[in-house]
Fold this sequence. Notes:
CATH topology of the largest domain in chain A: Rossmann fold
Number of strands of chain B: 2
Mean pLDDT of chain A: 89
Oligomer: heterodimer
Organism (chain A): Micrococcus lylae
Protein name (chain A): ABC transporter substrate-binding protein
Shape of chain A: globular
Number of domains of chain A: 2
CATH superfamily of the largest domain in chain A: Response regulator
Family (chain A): Belongs to the leucine-binding protein family.
Order of helices and strands of chain A: HEHEHEHEEHEHEHEHEHEHHHEE
Number of strands of chain A: 12
Keywords (chain A): Amino-acid transport, Signal, Transport
Largest sheet of chain B: 2 strands, antiparallel
Number of domains of chain B: 1
Mean pLDDT of chain B: 89
Strand content of chain B: under 5%
Number of helices of chain A: 12
Shape of chain B: globular
Structural class of chain B: mainly alpha
Largest interface: A-B, 41 and 41 residues
Distance between the termini of chain B: 35 Å
Strand order of the largest sheet of chain A: 7-6-8-9-10-11-12
Structural class of chain A: alpha/beta
Strand content of chain A: 15-25%
CATH architecture of the largest domain in chain A: 3-Layer(aba) Sandwich
CATH class of the largest domain in chain A: Alpha Beta
Strand order of the largest sheet of chain B: 1-2
Signal peptide (chain A): 1-22
Distance between the termini of chain A: 87 Å
Number of helices of chain B: 13
Helix content of chain B: over 70%
Radius of gyration of chain A: 23 Å
Helix content of chain A: 40-55%
Low-confidence stretches of chain B: none
Amino acid sequence: MRKKRLSIAAAAALLLGLTACGDNGGSSDEIAIGAVHPLSGPLAGVGGMMNDGAELAVDDINAAGGIKSIHGAKLTLMDGDSEGSAAVGQTEARRLVSDGAVALIGTYQSDVTENVAAMAERSDVPLVIDVAIDDKILSHGYKYVFRIQPNASTMGASGAEVLSQIGKATGQDVTKVSYMHIEGAFGESTYQAFRKEAEKQGIQVVRNVSYPATNFSDATTAVTQALSGDPDVLVVSGYYPDNLLIAEAVKAINPNIKAVFGIASGAYDDTSFPSDGGAAANGVLSANYHYSATSKRAQDIRKRFQEKYGRPMETAAMLSYQAVEVIAAGLEKSGSNDPVALQNAIANIRIDDTLLEFKGPIEFDDKGENKNATVIVTQVQKGRIEQVFPEEFATSDLIFPARDH
Amino acid sequence: MVKILIFAIMAVGWNIMSGYGGMFSFGHAAFFGIGAYSVAYLLSAHGLNPWFGMLFGAMLAAIVGTVFAFLCLRYKLEGSYFALATFAFAQMFFLLTENLEFLNRTEGINIPILQDDSWLMMQFHPTSYNYYWIGLFLLVAAVAVSIWFVHSRPGRFTTAIRDDEVAAESLGIAVLRHRLITVALSCAITAIAGGFYTQYYMFVGPNQGFGMQVSVDAIVPAVIGGVGTIWGPLIGAVVVGGLSETIADLVRNPPAGLEFLQGLSGLDVAIYAILLIIIVVFLPKGIYGTIRERLRK
C-alpha cells in the first residue's frame, strides 16, 4: 500500500515537472507582436475589431517590404484573449512574452491594461497602449509603457476647452452645464479634469450625476436629476450602452438645453450610434480622440478594412493599427528585435503622418504619454458622424444649438 | 503552470477543513483573499516584504477563520447551513474590499514593480522558473503539513469527529477545539496560496481575491482528485490545470475540422462542469480516492 502511494506521488511530481518545461519559440526572420484584447465576452465585438485593425497593419507593413533595417524581417501578430478580465489579460500577456513577442499592444479596458502594463514593465517588453484612458496606468513611472490616445484628464480638460470655444464661435451662451458620468476611475477622473478646466473657462457645473456601471437600464431618473439645474448643455462620459440610454432619455424628456455633449463617450462618435439612437442621436456632439477623416491614408485604410472584414473601422481599431505602426517604426529605428533597444527607440520616436486627428506628430513624453494627443468634436448629422470642430478638421459645419424643439 | 501550483495549494488547504474536518466550505475565497490582500497591502503601503506578508496573511486568515467557525459551530450551524454561511462570509469580504478606500476599492492593488530580480521581494522576470520553484516549495510544505496533521493526534481526533461527532464527544474528545484547529490550519494554508498569487500576478482585485470563482477553484481540484485524501487535491489540480491549458490551446489554434472552436471561451468551464458531474456520479471519491479503494480490495 505504502509503495503504491509513493509511486502515485512520484508520477504526479513527474507530470508537474514535465508540464513546467514549456517551449520557447519565435524564429529570427519573423518578429512577433503580441496583441491582448477582449476576444470573448461582452466586449468581444470591439476587441475582435481592434485585432483586425492590428492584423491589417501587420499585413500592410509586410506587403511594403517588412522592417527594412532588419533585412526586411516580417511581422507576425500573436493574439491574446483577455476575456475582459485583468487576471486573464495578464496571463495572456505573460504567455505572449514567453512565446517571443518583442512588443505588446492592447487592451481597451483600463483595469486590464494596468495589469498588462505591470507585466510588460517587469518583462522589459514595450507595451503600446491602443485604447485605455485611466491616468493611473502611466503614473507608476514605467519605462516600457506608451499611450497613443489622450488620457482621462487630458480628455476632460480639452473637452471643457472645446466646449467653451464652441460657445464663443457660435455666439451662444454656454455658462452652465450638468455633467453625467459612469462610476469608476474613468468617469470620475474625466469629470474632475473637466470641472477644473471649465471653471477657468467660466463654465459652471451646476449638477454632477454619476450612475452605476452595471444594472443601469433606465436613464430617465438620472437625466432628470442632471437637468434639474437648468443647464445650457448636458455633458456625458461613459460607454456605449449607458450613453445611448442617456441620449434616448434626453429625447423623451425633451428639455430646453442647447446640446448633449459627450466627452470620451463610447457611443456618440460610434458609427452605429446614429442608427441605434435614431432621432435621439440627431445633433449629439462628442469630444473624443478620433480617426482622421481628413487624411487620405486613413480613408484608404478604412476602406480596405471595410472590404476585408465587412464592417466599419471604428477609432479603436484605427488606434490598434497605429500602435502596430509605432512598434514597426521603433523596430525600423533600432534596427534590432531586442525589446530593450526597441523601448529606447519608441521613447524617442516621432511619427508625423498620424492616422488620428491629433494636433501634431506622435511623440512620447517621459511618462510615456503622447504629447500631441488631443480631442476633436464630432456631431451626428443626417444619420452620419461628421467632424465639426475645430474647423481645420471639419468635414461638415457645426450646428449649435444642436437641438430643436 | 504556476497557476496549477496555486490551485493545488488552495485545494490542499480546503481539503483539510472540508475533507478531513467534514466542514464543507463554499467560501474559501475569503481566506485566499485575506492572504492575497495582506501581501498586496503590506507591500504597497508599507514596503514590507511578501514573505512576511504571507506569514501575516496566514495568521490573520487563521484568526478570522477560527472566529467565524466558532460562531457557526457555537450556534450549531452545520452541514449545508455551514456551507451557505461560508459562502455568505466570502461574499461579505468581497463587498467589503470593493468599498474600502485603503484597499483601493474595485481597482485593486498593484504591487510596485522592481527593475531587478529579488528573492527577498519575491519578484522575478515573469517567465522565470523561480516562481515555479517557490510554488512547488510552498506546495510541498502544505502537503507535508497536511500529512503531519492527518497522522497527528488532533488530526485523528478530527477525522473521528467527522465520522461520528456524538461518539467522539462521548469518548471525551474536545469537539469544538479540534474543529477550530482544523479550520485555522486550513485557512492559513489557503491564505499562503493567496499571498503567492499576488506575487505571481503582481496584482489583486476584489474579483481575484474574494470572487466566487476562487472558492470554486479551491473545491474543484479536491473533488475531482478525491476529497479527504492527501494526494487527491494534487492530482485534481494537475487534471484541472492541464485540462484548462489544453483547452485554451485548442481554442486558440484549433486543429483542422474543429475551426468552429476558434476563440470560443468558456469551453473549459463547460468541460469542467461535465467532468465534475461525471466524477460526482461515477467516482464519488474522486480519481485518487477511487483508485485507492480499488487497490485496497
